[in-house]
Fold this protein.
Amino acid sequence: MNFRSLLPRELIITALPLLIQHITGRGVVCTYAACTVEKLIAGKMVPREVLEPHAPALLSALFASLGQQDNPSEHNEYVMKAVLRTLAVLREAALPYLGEALPKLAGMLAVVAKNPCKPHFNHYLFESLSLAVQLVVKSNPNAITAFEDALFPIFQEILQNDVQEFMPYVFQMLSLLLEMRGSGAGGAGDAGAEAYAALLPCLVAPPLWEQTANVRPLVRLLCAFVATRSERVL
């Protein structure tokens, strides 16, 4: 048993707007507020129906508190984890707020790829991007092209610079994009198909498979190729 389970539900619901206000505070105030909100959501003490009315204020505060995208020292892993948890609970209800947030998340990915110094932040960042892709493309299949245009240059830079920490994440996200494109989301435009096809020879290079963390994501990606681009594989 933890202290959160002893708090009355009405008290938690009443305190939620106050916690959201503190997310925009400085230093540890922001961190503690974001961590508290994330724990309350994870513990199902703030269910979706309670969270939805506060979604605009919460997501606005979280995205504002992520820090400058070009300054990794300001990137707060607790805020990013709260972003991920909030998106996971809100699902489609978060769509109106993703249009503004996604460019910032992609920009952060481009920055941290050059110096991956915060592994927990990076993990939650990739997970948030993956979830956002799924939510947006499910709602608007044609949006997959925009995601590919925004993310492919970053992925190519990561692969070319051999950023080992990020490679498993990149392969997983490529798998997700290819699976969604192949299932009919966004169609199979020539430019997109060629971009994926250009990656295929690199994916079977032995050095990639020598890294244990790469194996499962690579298997998934190759399976996606076989399922959606079999003519390129056979």
